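quick one
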Amino acid sequence: MTQNSTNLVDTARQLLAIESILGSDWLLPVSRNKNPLPPLQPAEHTSTATATAEAPSPTVGDTLSPEEKAAALAELNQSEVNNCKKCPLHQTRNHVVFGDGDPAAGLVFVGEGPGADEDATGKPFVGRAGELLTRMIHAMGLDRQQVFICNIVKCRPPGNRNPAPEEVQACWNYLIRQLEIIRPRVIVTLGNPATQNLLQTRVGITKLRGNWQRLPDIGNGLAGTPVMPTFHPSYILRRYTPEIRGKAWSDLQAVMQQLGLTMPKK
Ligand code: URA
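structure w/ uracil:
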């Protein structure tokens, strides 16, 4: 076999592997991400003015072992987040949804806020959108326990509305401290609320997705962390078109490249 035909066979194998994970209707023509990571300087951002970090946490994830990160996250959850009454969302919640996964993950997904299924179980992304996110993670050759998944707000906004700016503000310090402890190599923001708050911009997801961004200086040691904004899985489910799915998959492939992950082999 020539080098060219070996490459073709490899590519076909990889496509089949992904197809078996995502289902044939997920896998689509991919418009390759051509935008490199911007240089490491705080970019100019249009502030949404909703998101400012309170006092930075003294615990910096860089100096913590995986066990210490697990303990720091557990402590944050048990002593603060789980009893939080800083905004009215505590009155209607059944469970606080702190977040879940590897406390030392290189990759963190940030969503918007818990829905009904998450509120009922206390786990992030376990409903329909969660099923799709799980398939997307598997397509990257990872499982949920190898990444960390959390949300901008930890309690369910009634009726699945977008979290209000005061609710985001009340929860903000919890998210920042989670990120400070985990210190991921890459953050994927899912949809507008996560993207706009973390990047402190008013620019929408349609413009930002697929283009590498960097975190502004929102927490201890977090400035410059690479961020890939992509569509929220709920949006993908609502607009299940080849174009939307192809774009989301292309965003995830850029993340895989950044993390040095190869396509899963069958
Ligand atoms: N949507 C989100 O943004 N987060 C969840 O945890 C579930 C659905």
